[in-house]
Design goal:
By secondary structure, this protein is α+β, with helices and mostly antiparallel strands. The protein is 15% helix and 56% strand. The chain is built from 2 helices and 18 strands. It has helices at 2-53, 141-145, and strands at 55-70, 76-90, 94-104, 110-124, 127-135, 169-182, 185-194, 198-201, 207-210, 223-231, 236-251, 254-271, 274-285, 296-307, 314-325, 328-342, 345-356, 370-378. The strands form 2 sheets. The protein has a 16-stranded antiparallel beta barrel. A two-stranded antiparallel sheet has the order 8-9. It starts with a helix and ends with a strand. The model is unreliable at 1-5 and 214-218 (pLDDT under 50).
Length: 379
């Protein structure tokens, strides 16, 4: 009898253990299924987050407020500029950048200009393909120094503003990038093909070159050029630029072409709080008997030195600039003193000594000296 009871007890225990094991196996299977489900949801969430993180957007830019007192005239608040810059990117393969410039005309009306708007596809670590309207790769001042809070003086060097000797922008396509070290020297490059510039008269009667070439229906993409720059030592860059093509000019209803070429060289060096910059650029336009406008050469140069004190937020600047075109020869010495509230918030004070080499007349506009002030802010 005792053996029989013992057998029944062992059987009951075995059945109970088997049931418990089966129950445990079911729970483990359900737990594994839930864990796999959580892993899948986590992977989907991570993929969505990574997809959103590939895109980015940023607004930067600068603003400037100007005052001037021209010799022989009353002082006035001479300008207000607001230039937002938009940056958008997708992963590490594409970037868009564009700058709008809002200003105030002499009559008090708001002006709007599209300084540039271009997209860049990064082909590899050393090359980006840029398409759209971009700052001219010719030289250094236009593409790197023109924002008010970067420029050391309240004005631009003679010939380096709009309608001067230096090209300001292009509409076309460009390859830009840097190169691996060669003999332990870094270098960078820009090659471009763009619409032909246009050639004509401005509202004030000056013969000008419209670098972007958007005002003539006869423009074609026949302007090619580029810039190559070396960094022989830390803080130094030496650049060389050239461009070749044609300019378009509309005569009555016909569009005629003229030979067009640009050469330039630039230099910058920064050491021990001393900043040195210099640049030369020359644009030449050939003759055409079908036009009433003569060709000629537009050339400009400047050399600038500034020193930023480490103990006080003061920065003195001096710059010489020279500009020749077929109608005028001018030069200028600008002496300035900047107060830096911060690296991107600067109050500038300057005095211009202007000289018109073609005229000794005191009332010549190009001979009028100026006192300038500007508050510039970069953000």
């Amino acid at each position: 009898m005792k053996n029989k009871i013992t057998g029944l007890t062992l059987g009951a225990i075995l059945m109970l253990s088997t049931s418990t094991l089966l129950a445990d196996n079911n729970d483990i299977a359900k737990l594994v299924k839930d864990v796999n489900m959580l892993k899948l949801k986590s992977q989907n969430l991570q993929a969505n987050l990574e997809g959103n993180a590939k895109s980015g957007f940023q607004i930067a830019g600068y603003a400037a407020f100007d005052w001037q007192n021209v010799e022989g005239s009353n002082s006035k608040f001479s300008g207000v500029k607001f230039a937002p810059i938009f940056h958008a990117k997708y992963s590490d393969i594409f970037q868009f950048e564009g700058e709008l410039e809002f200003g105030i005309s002499e009559t008090g009306e708001t002006t709007t200009d599209l300084e540039y708007a271009a997209g860049t596809i990064f082909l590899n670590d050393y090359m980006g393909l840029q398409v759209g309207k971009f700052m001219s790769p010719i030289g250094q001042f236009v593409q790197n120094q023109h924002p008010s809070w970067i420029n050391k003086l309240p004005n631009t060097p003679l010939g380096f503003g709009h309608d001067g000797a230096a090209p300001t922008s292009n509409i076309g396509i460009a390859l830009r990038g840097g190169l691996p070290k060669i003999l332990n020297i870094r270098s960078n490059y820009a090659l471009f093909m763009s619409n032909a510039p246009t050639f004509g008269k401005a509202a004030d009667g000056d013969v000008i070159i419209n670098a972007t070439g958007v005002t003539s229906s006869g423009n074609v993409a026949n302007n090619i050029g580029g810039r190559y720059a070396l960094n022989p030592i830390s803080g130094m860059e030496v650049g060389f630029s050239a461009s070749k093509g044609e300019v378009s000019e509309t005569v009555t209803v016909n569009t005629i072409a003229r030979d067009y070429s640009v050469v330039g060289a630039d230099f910058m060096y920064n050491f021990n709080s001393i900043d040195i910059k210099a640049e030369y650029v020359s644009q030449t336009i050939g003759e055409n008997s079908a036009s009433t406008l003569e060709g000629g050469t537009w050339k400009a140069l400047y050399a600038q030195v500034s020193y930023q004190f480490s103990s006080i937020a003061i920065e003195p600047v001096i710059r010489y600039s020279d500009y020749h075109n077929p109608d005028m020869k001018t030069n200028q010495i600008a002496i300035g003193l900047n107060y830096l509230f911060a690296n991107n918030l600067i109050a500038k004070f300057a005095y211009e000594y202007n000289k018109d080499e073609n005229s000794d007349a005191i009332n010549s506009i190009a001979n009028n000296n100026k006192m300038l002030a500007q508050l510039a802010f970069g953000f």
